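A reminder from the course coordinator: this example appears on the midterm review sheet, so study it carefully.

Given structure:
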């Protein structure tokens, strides 16, 4: 088996890819910014706006079931999970962060479909604002890169 060359990546090209995005509405200012950055980056990578299916759900715990529904529907090369969980004073933060993260991973593995998980978890609003644009762009890039990778492995 040949070792992969570290640092060498194939140029990202989203032309012809169908991408599904599930965005949580909770902390909407942050998730709207995540979505805007993600959509902009997908289009800059060549993904046609008509090949992007963007839907919204109430919160991070609802994201995985919507991802699962899209995966079952089929026709997507990759999915993106967008959300924002900000630590509060109760255990609820850990519950939502852990369960949403594990469920997103489970959907990805069960359906053998790449899911870029950009459900950000932060200590406070300032951290969320600082990450919203970069994480949205990163999610788009991860979705396209993983779709390309899986296509080469098929």
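Designed residues:
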């Amino acid at each position: 088996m040949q070792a992969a060359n570290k640092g060498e990546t194939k140029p990202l090209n989203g032309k012809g890819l169908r991408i599904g995005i599930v965005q949580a509405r909770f902390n909407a200012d942050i998730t709207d910014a995540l979505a805007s950055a993600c959509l902009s980056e997908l289009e800059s990578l060549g993904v046609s706006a008509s090949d992007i299916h963007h839907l919204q759900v109430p919160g991070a715990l609802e994201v995985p079931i919507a991802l699962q529904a899209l995966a079952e529907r089929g026709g997507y090369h990759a999915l993106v999970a967008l959300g924002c969980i900000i630590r509060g004073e109760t255990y609820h933060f850990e519950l939502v962060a852990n369960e949403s993260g594990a469920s997103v991973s489970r959907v990805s593995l069960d359906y053998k479909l790449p899911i870029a998980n950009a459900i950000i978890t932060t200590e406070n609003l300032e951290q969320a604002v600082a990450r919203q644009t970069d994480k949205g762009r990163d999610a788009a890039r991860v979705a396209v890169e993983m779709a390309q990778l899986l296509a080469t492995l098929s």
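The first helix runs from residue 28 to 44. The helical segments are 28-44, 63-73, 92-111, 125-153.
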